[in-house]
Amino acid sequence: MSESTEPVIVHNAAASRFETKVNGLLCVASYHLHNGVMDMVHTGVPPALEGRGIAGRLVAAALDHARAQGLKVRPSCSYVAVYMRRHPDTLDLQTR
Predict the structure, then answer these.
(1) How many whole angstroms separate alpha carbon 22 and alpha carbon 72?
(2) For residue 1, what pLDDT is reported?
(3) List of residues 6+ apart from 61 with CB closer than 8 A
C-alpha cells in the first residue's frame, strides 16, 4: 500500500468478516451475526502493517455495513470498543 492508495475493503460474508490484503498480508475484522446483532469479535492486522490505520478502515466498513443493514453492533473486540468510543457517531449502533 503506497501512501496514496487506500486498501480495498471487501465484505466476505461467507467468512463473516471484512478483509483486505496489503503487501500480500491478510487483515480482517471478524463478526458473528445473530438476531440482528453483528458481534464484532476480532480485528487482526499483521505486525508489519500496524500503525497504518488499516484496522480502523476495516471497522469503519463493518459499522457502515451494520448501519446500512439496520443491524446493532456488540463490540466484543476491544479494538472495536475503543474505535466506537473515539467515533461517537457510531455509538447509536451499539448494543450490550
Answers:
(1) 29
(2) 44
(3) 9, 11, 18, 29
List, for residues 50-87, the tens digit of each pLDDT value. Answer: 999 999 999 999 999 999 999 999 999 999 999 999 99
Bridging pattern class, strands 17-22 and 25-34? antiparallel
CA distance 37 to 54: 23
Question: Could you give all domains of the chain from N- to C-terminal order, each with its CATH number?
Answer: 10-93 (3.40.630.30)
Question: Measured between alpha carbons, how far is residue 43 from residues 3, 4, 56 in Å?
Answer: 22, 23, 9
Phi (first) and psi of residue 30, to 5 degrees: -95, 150
Question: Where does the chain show beta strands of DSSP type E?
Answer: 10-12, 17-22, 25-34, 37-44, 72-74
Query: pLDDT value at position 46?
Result: 97
